[in-house]
Design goal:
Topoisomerase I, domain 3, 39% helix, 25 strands, Rossmann fold, alpha+beta, globular, seven-stranded antiparallel beta sheet, Topoisomerase I, domain 2
């Protein structure tokens, strides 16, 4: 009997699909059923190979060997997950498999995960595509009822391949060129370098900023505060003499009511979340990094099945989702949102144009709750926070707008206008989710042309503030809309950026930020992101056009064209080859220098050159500054031993005969003292001994209960079918 093979991206999703399809026989790396087999990758099982697969000489980084431009880029099996690849391969080649269903994440990268495996196996069986936005039972069943032909996603695969190949060409060659030219670990990339440039531009703007003093005028009429409003709508004056002149003109004069304007206004909720806006809000509210927010979202999507697909750039729903909104509302069980969800269900649900628009959804709709209920105790503290953010926004767009009455009052004195505004809430609408009705403000019943005494008149002052340093939320926004962060006088650049889009995609931006931290090109100071000395030097060495957000935005536009079928991948890659040749040539010709900011006074025992201090996740090392020498030695490492005072992991420093344990809290202990303390602790019995003791006690208690049970012996020896 023939079967279909279903390839998921991760084991967790694969197991959910297998359960829904009634596949029950668990095997090593897959689950088999009567008419289907479900297997999985671990993310990528196949990737683009390193340069040495084309020529052994590329194992050594030599400037003269660049650029490396293979006729066709080859894929290789990733070593760490090679065993699972072999399992997937054997399943694809099984005689009883007559169809392959790609069930990896529904997006560009998910398509690449599956297609590279299929290409590597050289299997030529029919392909279908499962395209779903959540992994609930209902979504999986509906997705399998509506499987699409694999050829419908061929252009998506071509775009994904073009992205990977262009990053390889530019990244590998640019990084090797910089590293070998300047004998330093330097890297560049088509998205990371322009992103770094945005941070540099902001720092430069802050450095050059000079505060400008400004002034204002306030008056108080019967305890009501009025602010000066000039004819151009401005309330700030940059000429102190003008402020003094106004105060002199209005002093000891009465104010005349010029206008009292009352309007009923509405306040509408924000749009539904896409990944970037969710990451921004999570950072601003809870301090979560973009990477952390995406991780929590993945858990809520894959494990709890509570939210829809996270890697989306849309803030709208499609019309076909509207019919499922009722079920999604019924699934919301977490308080205080449950009562609001049931309140919405009492009226017919209609898809407003404010949140339902098919034309504004490409691969995936906005992030919303699924039809799957989840209780608070099933979620971690952080997962619940993210879940509640999405639920709250979902409920808000389904609730009416808030309404308030705005009263604008203008008084005039000696030809100068002063304004005050009152706002009185009429109905909370969606604000009921997070607010209580504000106290009603009694607006004085003043009449037009009525004159009133001025109780106080005063000059105010302040000064203009520099732009703020980027944080992870504002950097995400800048990557999404770089045109907003370009000076107004560069209109042509702003126009191009607004037409071509942002830096990277919603799926890659968090990784880019993490990579810039990891390569020590930028760092966090509090919540602010600042350039490192290494980052500043790198930007000085990189070709100018690679620093511009225009170039990478144009590349992203071309990738979208490949996805839409209006541009051939080979044409795009040909442009990337030409560009790679150009940037390598520029780097080779450059006469600038790079100065290591982490040089130490230690000399390399092999060649005598200065050693560089290098931090890594496991500790610190000293590395020879000459890459050709390659000598390195570890000077400290983070251990699993815990500090007896603060219980954090201890760092082991020093050579074998003079090793010492050090903690960030200030605790220090030599090896001899540590060993002595460890022996004493082991004699008393540690945590592990305690756990084993308690488990043995529980086991004994259970056995005793069974022996004392009068039914135990009567049932002994009986077998039950």
């Amino acid at each position: 009997m023939s079967k279909r093979l279903i390839l998921a991206e991760k084991p967790s999703v694969g197991k959910e699909i297998a359960r829904v399809l009634n596949c029950k026989e668990s095997r090593n790396g897959y689950i088999e059923g009567k008419d289907a087999i479900v297997t999985w990758a671990f993310g990528h099982l196949v990737t683009l190979g390193d340069p040495e697969i084309y020529d052994e000489k590329y194992k050594h980084w030599v400037l003269e060997d660049l650029p490396i431009l293979p006729d066709k880029l080859k894929t290789v099996v990733i070593g760490q997950t090679g065993k699972q690849y072999q399992i997937v391969k054997s399943l694809m080649l099984r005689n009883d498999i007559d169809e392959i269903v790609i069930a990896t994440d529904a997006g560009r990268e998910g398509e690449l995960v599956a297609r590279w495996i299929i290409e590597k196996v050289h299997v030529k069986k029919p392909i279908k595509r499962l395209w779903i936005s959540s992994v609930t039972d209902q979504a999986i069943k509906e997705g399998f009822r509506r499987l699409k032909p694999g050829k419908d996603y061929e252009n998506l695969f071509q775009a994904a391949t073009a992205r990977a190949e262009s990053d390889w060409l530019v990244g590998i060659n640019g990084t090797r060129a910089l590293t070998t030219k300047y004998n330093a670990q330097l890297s560049l990339g088509r998205v990371q370098t322009p992103t770094l440039s945005l941070i540099s531009d902001r720092e430069e703007a802050i450095r050059k900023f000079k505060p400008v003093p400004f002034f204002g005028v306030k008056i108080y009429v019967k305890e009501l505060e009025f602010i000066l409003k000039m004819k151009n709508g401005e309330s700030r004056l940059f000429d102190e003499k003008k402020a003094d002149e106004i105060i002199a003109a209005i002093k000891d004069k009465k104010a005349t009511i010029k206008a009292v304007d009352k309007k009923l206004k509405k306040n509408y909720p924000d749009k539904l979340y896409d990944l970037t806006t969710l990451q921004r809000d999570a950072f601003n509210r809870y301090g979560y990094s973009p990477k952390m927010t995406l991780s929590f979202m993945q858990q809520l999507y894959e494990q709890h099945k509570a939210l829809t697909y996270p890697r989306t750039d849309s803030r709208y729903l499609t019309q076909d989702i509207v019919s499922s909104i009722g079920e999604r509302l019924k699934a919301i069980q977490i308080n205080p949102y449950r009562k609001f969800a049931y309140g919405i269900l009492k009226s017919p649900i209609r898809g407003s144009k404010s949140f339902v628009d098919d034309s504004k959804v490409s691969d995936h709709h906005a992030i919303i709750p699924t039809e799957e209920s989840v209780s608070a105790n099933e979620l971690s503290f952080d997962e619940r926070r993210i879940y509640e953010m999405v639920v709250k926004r979902f409920l808000e767009v389904l609730m009416p707008p808030s309404e308030y009455e705005e009263t604008k009052m203008i008084v005039t004195i000696a030809g100068y206008d002063f304004e005050t505004i009152f706002k009185n809430m009429k109905t909370l609408g969606f604000l009921a989710l997070s607010s209580e009705m504000e106290k009603h403000i009694e607006v004085p019943d003043y009449k037009l042309n009525q004159t009133l005494p001025v109780s106080l008149c005063k000059k105010t002052n302040g000064e203009t503030k520099p732009p703020e340093y980027f944080n992870e939320a504002s950097l995400l926004e800048a990557m999404e809309n770089p045109s907003k962060y370009i000076d107004e006088d560069r209109k042509e650049l702003k126009k191009i950026l607004s037409e071509t889009g942002g830096l990277g995609t919603v799926a890659t931006r968090a990784d880019i930020i993490e990579k810039l931290y990891g390569t020590k090109l930028m760092e966090k100071k509090g919540k602010s992101i600042k350039m490192t000395k290494k980052g500043k030097q790198l930007l000085d060495l990189v070709p100018d056009d690679l620093k511009s957000p225009i170039l990478t935005a144009q590349w992203e536009r071309d990738l979208k064209k490949i996805e839409n079928g209006t541009l051939n991948r080979k044409v795009f890659i040909s442009k990337m080859v030409d560009y790679t040749i150009e940037i390598v040539g520029q780097i080779k010709k450059d006469t600038k220098n790079f100065k290591h900011d982490n040089l130490t006074n230690s000399k390399c025992p092999e060649c005598g050159k200065p050693m560089i201090s290098v931090d890594n996740k496991n500790g610190k090392s000293l590395v020879c500054s000459d890459r050709e020498c390659g000598y390195r030695e570890r000077i400290s490492r983070v251990t699993n031993a815990r500090c007896p005072e603060c219980h954090k992991k201890l760092e082991l420093r020093g050579s074998k005969d003079k090793q010492i344990f050090v903690c960030v809290c200030g605790f220090k202990e030599n090896m001899a003292a540590f060993e002595k303390r460890k022996k004493e602790r082991d004699k008393q019995g540690g945590k592990k001994d305690y756990i084993n003791y308690m488990n043995n006690q529980k086991k004994k208690a259970k056995e005793e209960r069974i022996e004392d049970n009068p039914f135990a012996k009567a049932l002994e020896g009986l077998k039950f079918d």
